[in-house]
Amino acid sequence: MKKKILVVYAHPEPTSLTRTLVQVTVETLEKQGHEVIHSDLYGMHWKAVFDENDFPDRVDPNRLSFIAESAHAYVLGRQTEDVATEQAKLSSADAVILQFPLWWFGVPAILKGWIERVYAYGFGYGYKNEGNRYRYGDGALKGKKALVSVVAGGPPEDYGPRGINGPMDQLLFPLTHGALFYPGMDVLPIHPVYGATHIATAAEVEDVKEAWRCRVRRLFEDAPIPFRSQNGGGYPDRHTLGDNVAPGQNGLLAHIAGEAR
Amino acid sequence: MKKKILVVYAHPEPTSLTRTLVQVTVETLEKQGHEVIHSDLYGMHWKAVFDENDFPDRVDPNRLSFIAESAHAYVLGRQTEDVATEQAKLSSADAVILQFPLWWFGVPAILKGWIERVYAYGFGYGYKNEGNRYRYGDGALKGKKALVSVVAGGPPEDYGPRGINGPMDQLLFPLTHGALFYPGMDVLPIHPVYGATHIATAAEVEDVKEAWRCRVRRLFEDAPIPFRSQNGGGYPDRHTLGDNVAPGQNGLLAHIAGEAR
């Protein structure tokens, strides 16, 4: 069945490895008969900074509360056009693919600012104006697939279980769990490319493209990361893991079912 | 002895809790006889997006490599003035304090973009043009103190050891370990404020201010997080923990000496 996929990417250089992999995304999905829509953040000159200009019609002109103004702007349709457009693209998509270089162990500022501005109160959080009732597996984006393609300069061993940078899936937990699973998306395991600064030959690039092509092809088949949902029984008080859930485990990995400590 | 402290902050609303705590920082340090310098990112209209405009004099006008252009611009003094100014402020400071609201489990985009742009190759990484030789405890900012003040809307239990968001120190590991310890700073334990949306009365605000005042007073006395240094013996190959270091431990916390798993 034909699906719609939103590809959000954050690199200005068309010949970069990130952008090369964006091309693979588009070709692979279109070959499968799907429709691809783009958010080329650099190409769009996306406004990265969340500020007072996001709220042309203020509920309180004297004091800027981001939550209060965001809720007001979202519910009354007084958001800026760029934000409303991105929300509509997200809402219409069956899946979202994020593609970016790892900068200082996180997403580039332009992508962070996309999340901050597009995730309005009522949309990215505070769904149905119900505070934290719908989050972590439940929300406005429930059931959509999310897939992260990240390109790191450092070698894979630096990101291994005992690598000096820390494991990639833990470094990006604020993105996968905190930004994608939070409003309800099914988040697939991250697809990292390591040692990007040393990928030089055409054969090496082709290997990287092929590995990603395989992941994209299975976008609607692969199992998501088994993050525990807030409302699925793991968090009886909606704040902390129940005593019978992952007993004795602490930290980020306790929020993933079946994850060895 | 009189010290110089750079305070970098990221909230546009002067009456916000973040900015209230910035005032506490300034008052406390000046009362101690220190000199405070400011990087008010919103007030400065800091350019958050790292892009081709950061490199007015390109080594390769046809293809944008951030690392190559950053190294070129830094070593030849062809950076933009705003970036060079922030580097000079960092270099002249004995300590750096970052103050910001937690947005989507990380720093606001404007602060992420400050790190990305100011941390040039040769300065924030690639010190002495030696690749990864100097990092994680060694580098251009070696010996400076770093302290993070973060304001979160959610309650403390959400950030506890088994809290649904994950522990704050693990969520901000990419900042403390990956951005502050990386170029050599001694990073103090994070000072979080939780439940900010429910801090309402003057007495509650005063409690929050007083707790922070105590932390600021001890800026040059408190023990840093005992992150393991790359060149201190923990990583014989500069990539992974040695077999005799934290044996059997994996993940972020293995990089902190004495941290229970």
Description of the molecule:
2 copies of one chain form a homodimer. Chain A is an alpha/beta fold. Chain A has one domain (4-227): Flavodoxin domain (Rossmann fold, 3-Layer(aba) Sandwich), CATH 3.40.50. Chain A contains 7 helices and 6 strands; from the N terminus they run βαβααβαβααββα. In chain A, strands 1, 2, 3, 4, 5 and 6 form a 6-stranded parallel sheet that branches. In chain A, α1 (17-31) packs across α7 (202-217). The termini of chain A are far apart. At the A-B interface, α4 and α6 of A face α4 and α6 of B.
Features:
homodimer; 7 helices; six-stranded parallel β-sheet; 261 residues; alpha/beta; Rossmann fold
| Rg measurement of chain A, Å | 19 Å
State which percent range the strand residues of chain A make up.
5-15%
**Overall domain count of chain A:** 1
Q: Care to count the β-strands of chain A?
A: 6
Category from helices, strands and their pairing of chain A = alpha/beta
Mind summarizing the main beta sheet of chain A? 6 strands, parallel
By CATH, the topology of chain A is Rossmann fold
